[in-house]
Specification:
Blueprint (H helix, E strand, L loop, with lengths): L2 E5 L2 E4 L4 E8 L8 E7 L6 E6 L5 E3 L7 E6 L4 E6 L8 E8 L12 E2 L3 E6 L1
Parallel strand pairs: 2-11
Antiparallel strand pairs: 1-3, 3-8, 4-5, 4-9, 5-6, 7-8, 9-10, 9-11
Length: 123
């Protein structure tokens, strides 16, 4: 199995910053997995935010380009999401995910998920 544990969520005012972390472990975890961040707010579908493959190639949703940065530490099996210029629309539960997806920002392509961390941005 794979365990993914997110941390770093919280409440912040618009324009502020947060850094999310995700720790990966487990017998089935592979350091070459693509890692991704997704988010889901009430009444909305889960959407892809950013993904990074084992070679640190990245892809971002248009809504976060220029504001969010995804990175990973393969030696420590950690995933990060630096979020700057936060907006109220960024309010959601943020999930990290791991797998070998064909489409990096489609949630149905990921088998392993964390429990999520809440991010709330007030105006």
């Amino acid at each position: 199995q794979v365990q993914l544990v997110e941390s770093g969520g919280g409440s912040v005012q618009a324009g502020g910053s947060l850094r999310l972390s995700c720790s990966a472990s487990g017998y089935s975890y592979r350091s070459w997995f693509t890692l991704a961040w997704f988010r889901q707010s009430p009444g909305k579908e889960r959407e892809g935010v950013a993904a990074i493959d084992a070679d640190s190639r990245t892809i971002y949703a248009d809504s976060v380009k220029g504001r969010f940065t995804i990175s990973r530490d393969n030696a420590k099996d950690l995933l990060f999401l630096q979020m700057n210029g936060l907006k109220p629309d960024d309010t959601a539960v943020y999930y990290c995910a791991a797998d070998s997806p064909s489409e990096f920002l489609q949630p149905e392509n990921y088998k392993f998920w964390g429990q999520g961390t809440q991010v709330t941005v007030s105006s």
